Amino acid sequence: MIREQTTTQVQNLIADIINRRILEAEVIHPAYAELWRRVLAISLHGGKRTRPYLTMLGYGQFDDKVVPIAAAQELLHIAMLMHDDIIDQDSIRHGVKNITGLYVDSYGEHAAEQAAHFANSAALLAGDALISEAYQCIAASDVSLETAKMLHKRLGQSIFEVIGGELMDVEAGFVKDTDYDPFDIYYYKTASYSFVGPLVTGALSAGADKETINLFKRYGTEAGIAFQLQDDILGLYGDPEVTGKSVLTDLREGKATHLIDIHKQHYTPEMKARFDVLFGNQDVADEEIAILKQDIIDSGARQAVEDRIGERYRLALNELNHLTNEPQRAELRAFTEKLMGRTL
Question: What are the Cα distances from residue 17, in Å, to 127, 136, 193?
């Protein structure tokens, strides 16, 4: 019930916010209003609204006054997806064209490289606009000034950390003389803003004590890293119809994941020879990618990562045993167990 109420009200609030911005943008220029209309379409399509849900769970129960605070977490997430798609050079998100993809179509009369540049520019601006709206949501919420300051600080910390995670993630794929720990990337790119941030935001809104906040930090770290490890598996072996993204991207881009690290520790000389040629090769054929994916299974890397996913989720569940709010504990446990059951 908490998830359904939160999702519905956050969805409605986001629609109201963006529709108001469309009217205000029309005064500036029709092109600006069109950007906001596209932001509206993208914002309301797909997405499980997990971050608002976790915000409400961190609070401990559903409460109307927390809806704007929960919506801020979702607006940040949508913004980061827009920026992430620019970084990954993707034009599809949740199975439909993202902001970049929509603007590439609009700018089709221009040269392809120029159209792509300006389409990415529009997506960058759209993401920036939603980050601003996230702050506005907190400012407009019915909490004390002191609490709002704490929530703004927490939002800023999430943004600061996810940018660091994104940069490490980008550089790990092509800067060869620097080591990046995949687990640092997993924490800062995913766990911090997708799990820890929303839970702590909800807890701060409820006036929770430091012990509870620290518990959520530990839980969010373990669950968030497990979630990202799952995404590494889904990024290679998932169904594009379900994930909304190609299963070839990570291998063609040479993405440095824990899965790849484990594979490199255990591959045979024959596997290594194929890996050195195929991994990070943008022009590799689909058939060769399929061979590389099978090698990762045969080296035992996929099973090893799946085992680590289970370990991390179990650590997260153990943290929940210390929550004194029984309904909150039960809801978070059910949420965690559902994550554990994510399939291809």
Answer: 15, 10, 22
